[in-house]
Amino acid sequence: MTVQLNSAVHDDLREAIEYYNRTAGSEIAIDFHDEFLRLAGLAADAPRTFRIYREDSTEIRRVNLQRFPYHFLFRQIDKNSIRILIVRHDHRHPSYGLDRW
Predict the structure, then answer these.
(1) Which residues contact 99 (CB under 8 A, 6 or more apart)?
(2) In 47, 54, 63, 99, which residue has its Cα 20 to 30 A from 92's Cα atom?
(3) What is the CATH topology of the domain spanning 2-91?
(4) Is residue 46 a contact partner of residue 33, using CB atoms and an 8 Å limit?
C-alpha cells in the first residue's frame, strides 16, 4: 500500500524536525523522522489495526509515535493507499488541522 501526504504534512514534519534539531540535536531529529516513517509504513500495511479517531463519512485513524509526544491522523483512500492528513504534537489543540480532510 502506498502512503500519500497532505501537502501541509511536509510543514508539520519540518517544524518538528527543526525543533528537535535545535533543542536536542540532529540525532534526535533523525530519530523522530525515522519513527514517523516506520509508523507510516505500518499504517499503510495494516490501516485497520489503528484506532478510529473520528468516524463520519470517512474514517480517520490515529497513530501515536512511541518515543515522541506526537501523533498523526490518516484515512484510507482506497484498497491500495492511505493519506496522512496531519502530524501534530499531542498537546496541540484538537481542532488543529481538522480542515485538512
Answers:
(1) none
(2) 47
(3) YaeB-like fold (3.30.2310)
(4) no
